[in-house]
Each structure stands twice: as C-alpha cells, then as structure tokens.
Write a structure and sequence with these properties.
The complex is a heterodimer.
Chain A lengths: L1 E8 L4 H14 L3 E6 L9 E9 L14 E4 L21 E5 L4 H8 L5 E4 L1 H9 L6 H12 L4 H15 L3 H19 L47 E5 L9 H5 L5 E3 L5 E3 L9 H5 L5 E5 L5
Parallel strand pairs in A: 1-4, 4-5, 5-6
Antiparallel strand pairs in A: 1-3, 2-3, 7-10, 8-9
Chain B lengths: L30 H13 L3 E6 L17 E5 L4 H17 L10 E7 H7 L1 H9 L4 E7 L40 H6 L5 E6 L3 H11 L5 E7 L3 H4 L6 H10 L5 E5 L2 E6 L7 H5 L15 H22 L4
Parallel strand pairs in B: 1-2, 1-3, 3-4, 4-6, 5-6
Antiparallel strand pairs in B: 5-7, 7-8
Helix pairs in contact in B: 1-6, 2-4
Classes of the chains: A alpha/beta, B alpha/beta.
Chain lengths: 299, 317
C-alpha cells in the first residue's frame, strides 16, 4: 500500500488534493481511499488529509501514521507540533514543502530523517491561477508526480473531475489545469520515489480513560485563546497608516476576532500574533489608510 | 430610512471592552463570531454563554477559550434546556443568599441556524413557552457550516449546499423555502425578538441594549456571512452583509410584545442579483445558463415581503 499525507491550512485545498490523487489512482485501476481530518477544518487552521492506494481492497482506516509521502503546503506548519507534520516521517521516502527556499537549506534547518524537496507552489498558483486561490490542483499534481501516477492526461482528468465537483467556472478550471501541468512536469524528473511496501499490520488497542477530576474538560482560565497565535493563518498582513487614520472606529467594529483594539487616543492597533488576515479592515477602511503586505512565511 | 437609535448612535460609542479574546479557531472573517463579539459588547459582561453544538463548538478547545465569560457546552438540541438549568441555579443561589445579587449572570444561548431551526426547535419553543429569562443568539449562516455546509432549514431557495447541489434534476440547488425564524418566535409571544446584521453594528448593539430592560425570552437572529460555505472572500464579509440589507433579502426588524417595527427600510432596494453574484453558492443561477425562473421567484419573494411591510408600517404616499 502507498500512503500519502497532506498538511496545510483550511482553504489551501488539501482535502481536494487528496481526492485528486485518489481519483487519479482509481482511474489508473488501483483501489483508492481518501479522507480529510474531521472537526477542525477551519479556513486557516492546521488540517491534514490522507490518500491510500493499493492493488487490493484497503481495510486500513484513520490517520496515516506511516506515510510514504508527505506534502506540506505551509512551511510554518513544520514548527507547529500540534500539526503533526513530522509524525512518521522516518517512513517517508520524500517530504515536499511548498517553499521558495532550497531543499538542502531546509534539510539542514529541520534535520528530518527523510529527503526534503521544495517547490514554490504558491508562486505557480499566484502566477497562473490568481490570488486567493486554493492549491489543490498543484498539490494533487505534485503528489501524483511523486507517486508515479500518470500519464499527465489522466492526472489532469482527475484534477478536472474534482474541480467540476467544487463548482469552479470553466476559466478557473483551465487555469488550475495549466498550473497542475507545470507542477507535474517540474516534479516528474525528481529521483525520490516512494517505495511500495507491503501492507502494514493494523493493531487495535484498548483506549485508556482517565477518571474523575483529571477527565473533566473544565477550562478555568478566561480569554486565554490569544496564546494560540492564529496570526500564522495569515496570507496578507493589514498595516494601518496612523497618520492618515481618522479614528472612525470601523476597523475596530468589524474585526470578527477582536484582534484590533483602540489605544488611549482611540487609534486602532492590530494584534499581529492573532490577526487571521481576513482583510475586512483593509477592504472597509473609509479613508483607505490600511494597506496589505504579503506575509513571507505563510504560503 | 433608519429608525432613531436609543442607546448608541455611532461607532465611536461602541463599548471598548472585549469579552471575546482573539485566537479562537473559527474561520477568518466569520460573520457569526463578529455577531457574538458585538452582542457580548452590548451586554457588558456578567454573562454565561450556553453553546449548542455547531460551528461555535470550536470556540473553546481545551485548554483554550477566547471567552472572558462563563461557557457551557451542550448538545445541538438542548442549549435552551441548559440555559434553564443555569437560570434556575442562579435564582436558587440568590434566593438562599449564597450568591450576591450583583453577581447574577445573564444567560445567553448561542446556536446556529441548524440547531435553532432543526434539531433544537422543540427545546427552544419550550423555553420561550415557559417564559425563561434568557437571551438567544442564532448565528444564521444558512446551512450546517461546521460539518461541511450541508442544507439546513435556513438554507434559502436557490442556494447550493453540500447536500443540495445543483444538478440537472434539481437545477436550483435548494428547493425548499427558508423557515421564517422571526415569525416562529413571534408566534410564541416573547417580549422581544429581533433580526441583526453585522453590517450595522450600531443597530445590533442598540437592539440588545433595548432588550436588557425586558424580562423573559429575548431572541436575536443575525445573518452570519460564512466565507467558506458561501464561497466568498473573507474580506468581503461586510459588503455582502450590507448587500443583504440593501437588496432587502435580510430585513432588519424587531418585535416588542409582538408589535413589529423595521429598523431599516431601504428606500430604493437594489436588485437581489447584486447580492447573489457575490457568492459561489448562487453561481449556478448564472452559469452555464442563466436560470431566469429561479431568479425571478427569489426576487418576487423579496418584493412581496416589502409590499406587505409598506402596507402595514409605512404611511401612504
């Protein structure tokens, strides 16, 4: 069985990417299974999705703990233990990171026990598909290329089938297909190929439950969610020009997260640790004194 | 035309205190979260939030919470019953002298349209019938958003959801009509019921403040722009909520002891199409073919509503 794990943030399209690979494998005559994690699939939150491919029916279920391939859309996830990107990476024959950095530089930085590849998927998406678009097509194509699924036409058919299901317009589909074509071509020459191991043994184990006070889900702190630092979700950063600001209070009123506070002189201040980058403030500022800057790390 | 505001007149008067800290795992640009933030501002603390399962399930994920208030999590169908329990407990503690009266809490149910109109409707109906002294905020994103945007009883006719896709047999997507929550509430004779919009924070805060003077069920429903479910950029949340008001598809109104008053009457309504075109969930109405019959029916429903308002609330021209 071949196991592929995708990591990204909600909105990147990792679920669709896992489906693209599943569909491409299915069209190639394999058994395939794809699924996203369930429960926290928020736009911007750390999410994962899985694809399993085999020549016989797949009985294994749940999260992929021993992946043959790992694909990471957002390199900031590598530093987040809760995202679980490193889980089982010793089994992986490659870990692909969406990054403009050199793979070797990242390998030194991360010291992972598996080969690291980098490709700037975001640059491809921004150039070919457009701003604010999901990366499902390029990510799916990248996984197909690394897993050896092909030919290109079959992979593109899988991409198109999934995009049609999402209700994308014809021109959006065409741009995504073009981006997928480029990424597939870029990665087809990469030597790192996942091994095709025999099916692993599935072990069932009895869950151990804590008793009494230890198991009561009571939070005694108030407002401590700010420690989660959802600012990492951001693609664009809103920046307020205080000199042009008229202190009208619109950005303060409209920030869904309360990440904008007013200082003692009623000027708005953005909490960048937690601003998710919805950019409503940028969009609605009546005097246009909020600008946007693309974040370097995320995407 | 806007009615005169009683308690707050412009954004500069918006309370500075935040009862909702940033860092919740809700989506960027969540309209429901903004509605909750503004409602909590209007209530000035001393609140116990009773949360029905839904998108807001993830508001507090152990060991983190964005709320600077108390929070009780319940199943999808039982939040009003949970509110009854907290209200009763507070009343008993105060009566026995074990809790000072000034430490009393306002009990606020927080529920989505799915929990409100589908699974939790009987529990809510019972609580209003019993005259429970509580606040109810329905964040209406017009589907079961948390689980992947499946159809709810609040999904509008002509919208596409995960379980009502646009297909050759069902080209409109959702065929059912959205349940009228405001009228369901009003038929229960509560002291206060209102619709809210995040596009008018002053109106929202003013209404909540007005309701605090009344005893019994105080019921609010806010149109909650849902960027991932509706298929729109998070940055366009305000614009979409504003278009909902200006096209007349989401009327702003309140009912005090059953008497309805619109707090915003758009003098010249914009065509509904302008609102629909901002969201991918309505894209099938325009492409590959324009579904004239569906669009006409949707526009007619809005027009018929406002004709009725005109007859009852507006003086004849």
């Amino acid at each position: 069985m071949l196991r592929i794990r995708f990591h990204g943030r909600g909105g990147h399209g990792v679920k669709t990417a896992s489906r693209i690979v599943g569909t491409a494998a299915f069209l190639s005559g394999f058994y395939a299974q794809d699924s996203p994690i369930y429960g926290a699939e928020r736009r911007g939150a750390a999410v994962a999705a899985y694809t399993r491919i085999d020549t016989k029916p797949i009985c294994e279920r749940g999260a992929v703990a021993e992946p043959d391939l790992i694909l990471v859309v957002d390199e900031t996830l590598l530093a987040d233990p809760a995202a679980g990107v490193r889980v089982g990476c010793e089994f992986a024959s490659a870990l692909l990171v969406n990054s403009g950095k050199e793979g070797t530089a990242l390998a030194t930085e991360l010291r992972l026990p598996c080969p690291i590849l980098t490709l700037d998927l975001t640059a491809v998406v921004l150039a070919v598909v457009g701003r604010g678009s999901a990366q499902s097509a390029v990510l799916g194509a990248a996984a197909c290329a690394l897993a050896g699924l092909g030919p290109l036409e079959r992979v593109l058919e899988a991409v198109q089938r999934e995009l049609v299901e999402l209700g994308l317009e014809a021109d959006e589909q065409a741009r995504n297909l073009e981006a997928a074509r480029r990424v597939y071509a870029d990665l087809s020459a990469v030597p790192a190929r996942p091994r095709l191991p025999a099916s692993g043994q599935v072990e069932l184990h009895r869950p151990t439950l804590a008793k009494g006070a230890a198991s009561r889900p009571i939070i005694l702190a108030v407002g401590n969610a700010a420690a989660r630092h959802t600012g990492r979700w951001r693609v664009f950063r809103p920046v307020i020009d205080q000199e042009a600001c008229t202190r009208c209070g619109v950005c303060f009123a409209l920030c869904p997260d309360g990440a904008i506070t007013l200082d003692e002189r009623a000027y708005p201040v953005i909490d960048y640790e937690n601003c998710k980058g919805c950019m409503m403030c940028y969009q609605e500022c009546p005097v246009h004194c909020i600008s946007e800057r693309q974040e370097v790390q995320a995407w | 035309m806007k009615t005169k505001r009683e308690f707050i007149h412009n954004l500069k008067e918006l309370p500075r205190d935040e009862l909702l800290a940033p860092g919740s795992p809700l989506c960027a640009g969540c309209g429901g979260l903004l509605a909750l933030r503004l409602l909590l501002k209007a209530l000035d603390g001393n609140v116990a939030v009773v949360n029905a399962a839904g998108c807001m399930t993830l508001l507090a994920v152990y060991p983190y919470t964005p709320l600077r208030t108390s929070w009780l999590y319940t199943t999808m169908g039982s939040a009003p019953a949970g509110a009854q329990g907290i209200r009763d407990a507070l009343d008993v503690l105060i009566a026995k002298g074990r809790l000072p009266r000034e430490e009393d809490l306002r009990v606020v149910v927080l529920a989505g349209d799915g929990a409100t109109l589908d699974i939790g409707l009987s529990s809510l109906s019972g609580a209003i019938h019993r005259g429970l002294d509580f606040y109810y905020l329905c964040y209406d994103n017009e589907a079961f958003g948390n689980t992947g945007f499946q159809m709810s009883a609040a999904s509008p006719y002509g919208s596409r959801t995960a379980t009502s896709p646009a297909t050759p047999l069902q080209a409109a997507g959702t065929l059912q009509q959205k349940k009228d929550l405001f009228e369901i509430w009003r038929s229960h004779h509560p002291p206060y019921a209102a619709t809210l919009s995040t596009a008018d924070p002053v109106d929202l805060v003013d209404k909540v403040r007005r309701a605090t003077r009344l005893r019994g069920p105080k019921l609010f429903t806010a149109l909650a722009v849902c960027p991932p479910g509706w298929g729109s950029a998070p940055s366009r949340g305000f614009e979409i909520a504003k278009l909902a008001l200006d096209t007349g598809v989401w009327p702003l109104k309140e009912a005090i002891d059953g008497k309805v008053r619109h707090t915003y009457i758009p003098q010249r309504r914009r065509p509904l199409e302008e609102y629909l075109r901002t969201q991918r969930r309505f894209a099938h109405l325009f492409s590959p073919q324009r579904q004239e019959d569906v669009l006409h029916r949707m526009q007619q429903a809005v027009d018929a509503y406002w004709d009725e308002v005109q007859r009852h609330e507006m003086p004849p021209r």
